[in-house]
Amino acid sequence: MPRSVNSVASRARRKKLMKLAKGYFGRRKNVWTVAKNAVEKGLVYAYRDRRQKKRNFRALWIQRINAGARLHGMSYSQFMGAAKKAGVELNRKVLADLAMNHPEAFKAIVEKVK
Domains along the chain? Predict the structure, then answer.
């Protein structure tokens, strides 16, 4: 008996992956083997960088808080330690936004924790 191959499913699978390769340069967009490798690598990068993005933003917030705190004579670690003791419930994202866009509000927080 001849071997049965489900070409409908195979084509659908390839079509789905080629759709993900749309917009790539050169053979990466239209040659199956090259596109498959490019898409797989791209998905790996996407997975990795979703986690890296969180690290990068946290580092950015820390730099902004540090710059704002140093304007008022404190280092980042001194400020965060004092804020914890004073019971300030604001996270780094909010503190960084205040330090950058609302310096008077950030100054009030610094004065409160000193």
Answer: 8-113 (1.10.1900.20)
